[in-house]
Prior knowledge:
This protein has 243 residues and is mostly helical. The protein has helices at residues 2-12, 32-48, 57-72, 78-95, 100-112, 119-122, 142-154, 171-174, 176-189, 207-212, 226-233; strands spanning 20-23, 129-134, 159-164.
Amino acid sequence: xxxxxxxxxxxxxxxxxxxxxxxxxxxxxxxxxxxxxxxxxxxxxxxxxxxxxxxxxxxxxxxxxxxxxxxxxxxxxxxxxxxxxxxxxxxxxxxxxxxxxxxxxxxxxxxxxxxxxxxxxxxxxxxxxxxxxxxxxxxxxxxxxxxxxxxxxxxxxxxxxxxxxxxxxxxxxxxxxxxxxxxxxxxxxxxxxxxxxxxxxxxxxxxxxxxxxxxxxxxxxxxxxxxxxxxxxxxxxxxxxxx
Length: 243
């Protein structure tokens, strides 16, 4: 989603974009089977809330597993588990009972909409672009990223493509050791001003939030199923609001 928004921003407001680093760029046209998968995720989510007082947890689990399959190739690691636990309450508020239309717009319609990546439109882009394709992306094979690259090059855009092997669609979560250096090098390559020296170490501002879900930055060994742990611990209650 973000890559398509970033590209449109650089087309509509070329002077506002200095460079684009696009991880898992969306294709020019959504593959039919991927659109059907997104629709199935939506239908399972909506069906699971037929009775908002007693949601069908099995059906909701199927919906979330569909999202995890698309994003992470069905892997359920500690960090993925923490992210699901963090985002589920927001998903219930934003896309739960009474907000299904918004969910369909964000999860299905946005991706199904045709985009104009014509030579005329792309030639408006004035900044360098790096496409980073995650090599294990099950939804979008490499040729989609290669097609987008060729369209950019044909439009006169300074563009390049890098492949990170074994990374799922959300490779920034799982393969940051490969992706972050590539981002750093791309920024340095296109930066003319003086850049301060990097800190010796840094802690993510999100770490305390992740730790609060039970995640630990230290590797752990466990015989239990991460998937079973995840769905046993989720809170599906609808938050109450007060005026």
